[in-house]
Structures are given as C-alpha cells and as structure tokens.
Amino acid sequence: MNFQSAILAFLFLMSAAGTYLPQVDPAPWNEILHQYVDPQHHVDYAKLKEKDLQKLRDYVASFGQGGSGPVSEAAQKALLINAYNAMTIEWICENYPTNSIWDTPRPFQARRFRLAGEAVSLDEIESRLRGMKDPRVHAALVCASLSCPPLRREAYVAERLDEQLDDNVREWLANPALNRFEPDRNEVIVSPIFKWYRQDFDAYPGGMRGFLLKFGPPAAVQKLKGREFVIRYGTYNWGLNDQAGRGKGYSIFQLGADWIKNWFRDWFADLGRKYNVNPAIFGGIYVGAIPFFTLCVGWIVSNLRRKKPIVLPALAASFFFVSAYLYLLIVGRDIPLWVYAVIAGMIGLGLYSTVRKIRAKAIPRGKL
Fold it and tell me: 67 and 10 in one domain?
C-alpha cells in the first residue's frame, strides 16, 4: 500500500468507526460460491459472468446500505471478509477475460465500491480488518490470484467465524504449493503474505513462529517444536485463479508491465485531480512532448559542438518542456511557480536574441 492509500485507509477507518455496518444476507454469496468455486478454490468466471453476474452485483450492492445498529466484532469481521472477496470477484467479472487482477485499472486503490453508504476501496476494507488485530484474516482474503489463500466455498458467518478462520488457515498452510514445511531441513517456506504483513503475524502470541506452529501441518509441527527453524519466503503468482486456466502463464514480466500500466493510470488520474483538468489531455501532451524535447536537447548539443547559436533549439526545448503546463494556463488551476519562471526565461531569451540581431544589423560591417 502506498502513502496515499494509507492516508485514505486511515480516513476511512476514522469515519467507519462511528458507522453501523449493514446486515447482509449471506445466502446469495453461499449460492455463488457453491456453484462457481471448485474444490481447488478456482472460480468459473466465464460462467458466473454469463449466468449470475447480476446476482453478484446485487449482493455487492447490499453492502452499501446503511446499518441500523451496532453489531459484534465477529459479525463485522465476517461481513468485511465476505465484502472483500465478493467485490474482488465482481471486479474480475466486470473485466473478464483477463489474466490477472493487475491487468485491470487500479484494482486495490480505487474507491469504486460502497460500504455502509461510504465509497471504499479493497485496500481500505483490508486495513479495517487488519485493525481488528486478527492475523487469521490474511488466510481468508482472496485477491483473485493463484497464490492467494483458498477461497472458501461458503460465506463467513459470525456464529462459526473462529472455526471457519482456523480451518482456512490450516488448509492454507497445508497446501505445499502455497506454504512448505520441511522439518528435516529445519526450514519453512511461506507465502510472501507473511512478509508483506509481518507486523500482523509478529503480534500473534509467539510471533510468526507461534502462528506457524499452531496452524501448520501437525506432523511437520511436531518435528519443529522446540527447534530453531528458518523462515523463508516464496514467490507470489498473480495469475488469475480461473478455472479456465487464464492465469497459469502469467509471468513476472507481465506483472511488471501491468504494474507500470497501472502506475501510469494512477499518474494520469492524479494529474486530473491535482490541476483540475482532463488528465488524458494533459498526460497526452506531457508524454507526447518527451521525444521532441529529447530531439531539441540533441540539437543543442550538436550546435554547441559546431559552435553555432543555441538560442533557437533552447527555446524549442523549453517550449516542449512546459508544453503540457501551457495547457494549464488556459484551462487549469494551481499552476506551479516554476512554469512561470521557465516561460519568463523563454521570453527573456527570445527578447535578448532579437535585440542582438537588431543591433548587429544596425552597426556598420566595418565596425563589427
């Protein structure tokens, strides 16, 4: 989570503290999970999108209702886990076919969902759950990826929440594709989730080791008890947990490309918010000017080597450098002061060059 997301999550937590959560019937979610999640915890997104997307949309929309009164912490926890998982699956269905959740716009940061009448992102729901100080929730939140913990084929409910969470943690840790206990080597190789949220697991009685020894496979745990063992972290496969296998070939290079693409999307969106302009136009001008600015810099270097004037290429480079911000002068707000400084410098350089040329023409050749 980046700094901006953390601030948004903090504000959400503060506002949600005094907000009653709605009471949501888990029956539709139970039906969807039973019908479209297989024993390997993969989702039939194609069939779900084709046959029951509206049912899923209606269920997700039910979280947006206002609450009528306080509910227990267990009820809050169950509701938030169900909300996170259902909202994630709905988002994938809306963008299906896709190979990864990272191939969709701003999957975790955008406040595209509603909870108790407030706009909320997946990151903010996760942050609220983390605030309840129960690291078991990390075994229940599923971000639609192959390396996620198992997607439970039933809704979480307050009455059985402890039993359900314990069961999910044990199934997660017992899956050698996600976590490996190797007592003969005094080693446990765990999901990167333990690294990303280490402070949550360290707060558990006995720390991360205590957590692993309580919920790990019994035979391996029996051998590891009383020993010092090394904890290592595996890799995370962000390929889609799709029954059709769309995510199986998702590579680290695709993840990098999708991460960069999302970074650009965030950057464009931030431009629009920061300057109150159309981010596509501003960003298009900004990115489009880069090759021309680069050519102008090359022109300056070439003229310097050949001892030719650099005024014209310098003015051209300055123009392309601030071209996107010239758009702000027409339609935007909060224009940076350095833009005015560059424009003033361009005008000054242009005037200086013009005066020199006029003076050179006015002075007789013999006196030059």
Answer: yes
Output the pLDDT for position 12.
46
Nearest to 98 by CA among 254, 235, 252: 254
Burial tier of 105 (Cβ tally within 10 Å: 0-12, 13-18, 19+): middle
For residue 355, count CB atoms less than 10 angstroms from its CB and return exposed for 0-12, middle for 13-18, buried for 19 or more.
Answer: exposed
What gap in Å lies between CA 326 and CA 231, rounded to an integer?
A: 54
Does residue 288 sit in the same domain as residue 237? no
Alpha-carbon gap, residue 161 to 328, rounded angstroms: 53
pLDDT of res. 11: 44
Range of the domain at 307: 276-367
Cβ partners under 8 Å of residue 126, min gap 6? 84, 141
**Number of folded domains in the chain?**
2
- CB atoms under 10 Å from CB of 214, counted, come to 15
Structure token pair of residue 212: 């692993």
Write out the two tokens for 52.
Answer: 């029951």
DSSP state string for 61-96: HHTTSPPSS---HHHHHHHHHHHHHHHHHHHHHHH-
Same domain for 49 and 178? Answer: yes
pLDDT attached to residue 287: 79
Predicted pLDDT at 273 = 67
Q: Are 36 and 148 in contact (CB under 8 A)?
A: no
Three-state DSSP state, 118: strand
For residue 220, give both structure tokens: 């391996």
Contacts of 361 (CB under 8 A, 6+ apart): none
Reported as a single tens digit per residue, the pLDDT across 268-312 is: 767 666 677 777 777 778 778 889 989 999 999 999 999 888 888
pLDDT over 90 at 334, yes or no: no
Judge contact between 327 and 358, C-beta under 8 A.
no
Tell me the HSE value of 257 on the side-chain side, using a 13 A CA sphere: 8
